[in-house]
Design a protein that fits this description.
The protein has about 210 residues and is of the alpha/beta class. Helices cover about 30% and strands about 30% of the residues. It has a single domain, classed as Rossmann fold (3-Layer(aba) Sandwich). It is globular and about 40 Å long.
């Protein structure tokens, strides 16, 4: 597969869609508290010592608040949609949420104990996915977490009338290929009763952290 770079100043078609009125409508529809996610994240991250965490594609920051409720002292978010960033900051001024993309994270190497996504990688073009994953790996000190729609084979699906906007895939294999310094340590399923759509989570640890 050919990897296509996505410079920080360039909008991919998927980012352009997300930063449009379409993305703002998504934010308004999904700006809901899901208390069940607190226990789901507790189970996923059980036993991992986390001093700080970064969510890539945090939208209005609900997952960051859940992590904070679980005792993670510092939580950060990066989000390309300006409307969502403003909404996150207005609701909780203590959240460190910044405008940016997965392709050029404005953070130092190995800055966070945990770097994670939830329903974000599915919206990244297959040719550009390795770039985003490599950035996640670069900024992670210890762990990576993906919570996404998985499938054995990559499937391009229409998303609310748009083509080229959603892919199901084997995210564990994608992370393993793009992040060679990490090893998978946990995998599991998540259901609507646990605060998610039918998703799969994968936790990876940097080899030096295991």
């Amino acid at each position: 597969m050919t990897t296509s770079p996505a410079p920080s100043g360039a909008l991919t078609p998927q980012l352009a869609l997300w930063c449009s009125e379409f993305g703002a409508r998504y934010t308004e529809r999904n700006d809901l508290e899901r208390p069940a996610r607190v226990e789901s994240l507790r189970r996923i991250l059980d036993g991992l010592e986390l001093r700080d965490a970064l969510e890539v594609g945090c939208n209005v920051g609900w997952n960051l608040r859940y992590l904070r409720a679980l005792g993670v002292p510092r939580v950060w978010g990066i989000e390309p949609q300006r409307f969502a960033v403003a909404r996150a900051r207005m609701r909780d001024p203590e959240l460190d949420v910044f405008e940016g993309t997965a392709f050029d994270l404005p953070f130092k190497d190995r800055q966070f104990d945990l770097v994670f996504t939830s329903g974000v990688l599915i919206h990244i073009d297959p040719a550009q996915l390795p770039v985003a994953l490599a950035e996640m790996a670069r900024t992670s000190r210890r762990y990576l977490l993906t919570i996404e729609y998985d499938a054995d084979r990559e499937q391009a699906l229409d998303y609310r009338g748009h083509t080229g906007a959603l892919w199901k895939r084997d995210h564990a294999s994608a992370v393993a290929a793009a992040c060679p310094g990490f090893e998978r340590i946990r995998t599991g399923a998540l259901s609507p009763a646990e605060g998610y759509d039918d998703c799969t989570f994968h936790v990876f640890a940097r080899a030096s952290a295991t």
